[in-house]
Design goal:
This protein is mainly beta. The protein has a single domain, classed as 2,3-Dihydroxybiphenyl 1,2-Dioxygenase, domain 1 (Roll). The protein is 12% helix and 30% strand. It contains 1 helix and 4 strands. The chain has one helix spanning 23-31, and strands spanning 15-19, 42-45, 48-54, 60-66. Strand 2 and strand 3 form a beta hairpin. The longest helix is centred in the middle third of the chain and has 9 residues, at 23-31. 5% of the residues are buried.
């Protein structure tokens, strides 16, 4: 993933979804960095689990781990 701060690439406050596995491990890695402003949690919703990271320009990166019947989205092919 390439994140750009070039003028015109995206509006501040945009949202990008990334479907992934391993949200707990990713959360642990972020929590271990002791960043004063980055303390995301994992939200459980009907369609999976979501960890949202917000950058200084209010761009949201939502890392989604599907569950149940939606977990087949992660299977290649």
């Amino acid at each position: 993933m390439h994140l750009s701060e070039q003028h015109g690439d995206a509006s501040p406050g945009s949202t990008a979804y990334v479907t992934m596995r391993g949200t707990d491990a990713f959360w642990s890695e972020l929590a271990a960095r002791d960043h004063p402003y980055l303390k995301p949690g994992i939200e459980t919703v009907d369609w999976g689990r979501v960890l949202t990271v917000i950058d200084p320009f209010r761009t949201q990166l939502r890392f989604r781990e599907p569950r149940g019947a939606d977990a087949h989205e992660m299977d290649p092919g």
